[in-house]
Each structure stands twice: as structure tokens, then as C-alpha cells.
TrEMBL record:
TM stretches of this protein: 34-63, 75-93, 152-176, 197-219, 231-249, 261-279, 285-312, 324-345, 351-372
InterPro entries linked: MFS, MFS_dom, MFS_trans_sf, Proton-linked_MCT
Cell location: Membrane
Domain Major facilitator superfamily (MFS) profile: 196-385
The family this protein is said to belong to: Belongs to the major facilitator superfamily. Monocarboxylate porter (TC 2.A.1.13) family.
Record keyword Transmembrane present: yes
Annotated membrane topology: Multi-pass membrane protein
Upper lineage: Eukaryota, Fungi, Dikarya, Ascomycota, Pezizomycotina
Protein name listed in UniProt: Major facilitator superfamily (MFS) profile domain-containing protein
Length: 385
């Protein structure tokens, strides 16, 4: 008996493997460093949106997620900061199209995803919090171009981004212990064998398939239907500005009633707005109203998406799982504009079926999210998840 105990005794310490991350109970859910991270993440969001390189921003998530899981936020954010500013500075000097594509679309395009606003808050708050912030770069560029020219417009944007990224580098941190792990394709493909994760990837693809059609085509459609160029070019800043409210009120409600419910409401409203308001809109008032309302729902969708990923993922795997989901979003973002343009061209310049394409994509994404929520919590609407 005593021998058996003595044999069992030494084996217990050997059986304990070092953990890569603290258990969920150790998530502080507040504190000075946690809120500094939220502040830094909000600043990081200012440098990420308003550029045409959204495909690369999402696609590089495959690499960025792995870096964040292995090394924490500081190294990826530092790399992303250098690339972003360097890419824009090189853009300000270029006079050839291929150099513009390399510097702005590729180098500066992949950088923002190495500085993701969701990078830090998921490690400090139980379930994550949504951060708020966005720079209106289309508006800035539109006003600066005629005054200082293209070169200095890009440099001013780069200096602005540099200042913001200094703050992000100083404030964003992690409370987990990160250990580098060998790269494996199965890190990305393995979660796809989980039905819930696969449903979320598919739903995200359809949501992003429809999400950027209004951003890409609302200006040209408005001009096509008689809106002046000056007013039409203000529609995208209206979309971006309204997204501030989409990133605050819905996200606050999501922490109270559940993220999936709020996301389902936002995707459903997006489908309704596209099909019931944008589709028949011809006058200035209708188009401006659509831009403002869709800005709210689109802001909520972009803000809540990463939190849904974290909510169904182990904390130690949330980085590359987020990268996998955002890779699906990247494909949707890349393919939807040419599809929308081809539909409009085949319709003789009418954007009717382009709007329908966007609305149906939202409906398919909503169906996928609804199916996932039912799988996670059943049919009860009061279950918070």
C-alpha cells in the first residue's frame, strides 16, 4: 500500500504540464493596464480604416493571429507600425502605378492587421470589449489633395498615423504568458473541422460579401441618379461617421443581452436597409438617410465580429482562429466589388441587382449566424451568449 502511494506521489508533479496561458478566471476584467490597452486599441483602430487595401488587411490576419498567440502584441504591433508608416511615405514619392500598388496596397495594406484593435482587450476582459475609434481618411485626403498635393497628403497621413501608433505601442499589452509554437497549417485548418467554427466562417464570408458593396458603389450610384459630385462624395464620410454610433450603443447593449443577438439584429437591419431603402432610393434625402443608418449597422458588424470569434474559441487559440475567420472575410471583401460591377455592367448601368446581391448576401450571413446561435444556446431569445 505504502509502496503504491510512493510510486503515485512522484508521478503527480511530472504529469503537470506548464500552461501556455492562465485559466479564464485569471482574466482581470478591468484595472489600469486593461483600460490603457483599450485606449491603445481604440487608437489602433484609427489607423486601420478608410483605405482601399482592406483585402490585405484581412488576409494577413492568418499570419498576424499566429504572431499574437506566440509572442503577444508588442512585436507584431511594432512591425506593423514600421510597415504602415514606411509604406505611406514611399507612396508619397511614387509616380508609377505598380509602385503605388506595392507601397500603399501591399506594404501599408498588410500593416494595419498587425496592429488590430482587438489584439489586447480580449486578454484583459472576460469575453472582450469593443473598442471605439476611426479616422476619416477619405475626408482628410479629399480636403488635403487640392491644397498640398498628393505627396504631402500621404506624408501628413503618415505622420498622423505615426503619432497614433506610438500611443498604441506604449499602451497595448497582454496579461498572458506567450510561448512560440512551430508553424503548422493544421492550426488554421483544424478548427474548420468544428461545425460551429465552420458556420461562423461561412456566415462571415457572406456578411463581408454584402458589407462593402454600399461603400464601393453608393457614390457612383448617387451620381448616376443625379446627385451632385460634391454631395455624393460626402456619403462615404457619412457612412464612416455614423459607424461611431454603431461601435458604441450596439456594443454596450451586446455586453448586457448577448453578442449574438445584437449581431443578428444588425445583420438583419443591414439586409432591410439595403433592400428596402437603398434599392429604391433615387433622391438625395433617401441616399443620405441610407448612408447614415447603414453606417451604424456596418460599424456594429465590424466591431462585434472579432468578439464572436473569441466567444467560441479557446483563449490560447483565439489569435489564429481570428486570422482564419478574417481570411474568409478577406475573400468576400476582394470578390464582391468586381461581382457588383459586373452585375451593374450586365444590367446596362443599373445598380438594382447590385443592391440585391448585397442584400441577399446579408440574408445568407444572418441565416448562418442564427443557425450558430441555435446550436450554441437553443431557441431561447433570453439566453445571453
Amino acid at each position: 500500500m505504502s509502496d503504491a502511494r510512493s510510486e503515485d506521489g512522484p508521478e503527480e508533479p511530472a504529469a503537470e504540464a506548464p500552461k501556455a496561458a492562465p485559466p479564464p478566471a485569471s482574466v482581470p476584467d478591468g484595472g489600469l493596464q486593461a483600460w490603457l490597452t483599450v485606449a491603445g486599441a481604440s487608437v489602433a483602430l484609427f489607423v486601420s480604416f478608410g483605405w482601399v487595401n482592406f483585402f490585405f488587411m484581412l488576409l494577413i490576419s492568418l499570419v498576424a493571429g499566429k504572431l499574437f498567440d506566440s509572442y503577444g502584441p508588442r512585436l507584431p504591433i511594432a512591425i506593423g507600425s514600421v510597415l504602415h508608416v514606411f509604406g505611406l511615405m514611399m507612396t508619397s514619392l511614387t509616380h508609377k502605378y505598380y509602385r503605388f500598388m506595392l507601397s500603399q496596397s501591399l506594404v501599408s495594406g498588410i500593416a494595419p492587421d498587425l496592429v488590430p484593435p482587438e489584439a489586447g482587450d480580449r486578454w484583459w476582459f472576460d469575453g472582450g470589449r469593443i473598442v471605439v475609434g476611426r479616422r476619416h481618411f477619405p475626408t482628410d485626403v479629399q480636403h488635403l489633395l487640392p491644397q498640398v498635393g498628393f505627396g504631402w497628403t500621404m506624408r501628413i497621413c503618415a505622420f498622423l498615423i505615426l503619432g497614433l501608433l506610438v500611443i498604441a505601442n506604449l499602451t497595448i499589452s497582454s496579461n498572458l504568458r506567450h510561448a512560440p509554437r512551430p508553424f503548422s497549417v493544421m492550426h488554421y485548418l483544424g478548427p474548420l473541422r468544428e461545425l460551429n467554427f465552420g458556420i461562423l466562417c461561412t456566415a462571415t464570408f457572406f456578411m463581408y460579401w454584402g458589407l462593402f458593396i454600399p461603400f464601393d458603389y453608393i457614390v457612383v450610384e448617387a451620381i448616376h441618379y443625379g446627385m451632385s459630385s460634391r454631395v455624393a462624395w460626402s456619403l462615404v464620410p457619412i457612412l464612416n461617421g455614423a459607424s461611431f454610433f454603431g461601435r458604441t450603443v450596439p456594443n454596450y447593449i451586446a455586453d448586457k443581452v448577448g453578442r449574438f443577438i445584437v449581431m443578428l439584429v444588425m445583420t438583419s437591419l443591414s439586409a432591410i436597409l439595403v433592400l428596402a431603402l437603398w434599392l429604391p432610393a433615387r433622391g438625395n434625402v433617401a441616399l443620405i438617410t441610407f448612408a447614415a443608418l447603414f453606417g451604424i449597422t456596418s460599424g456594429a458588424i465590424i466591431g462585434l465580429g472579432p468578439v464572436l470569434i473569441v466567444s467560441i474559441s479557446p483563449m490560447s487559440e483565439s489569435g489564429y482562429r481570428m486570422g482564419t475567420v478574417l481570411a474568409f472575410a478577406a475573400v468576400g471583401t476582394l470578390t464582391s466589388p468586381p461581382i457588383g460591377g459586373a452585375i451593374a455592367a450586365d444590367s446596362g448601368g443599373s445598380y438594382t441587382y447590385t443592391c440585391v446581391f448585397s442584400g441577399v448576401s446579408f440574408i445568407l450571413g444572418t441565416i448562418g449566424l442564427a443557425a450558430l446561435r441555435v446550436r450554441l444556446s437553443g431557441w431561447g431569445l433570453t439566453t445571453k451568449i
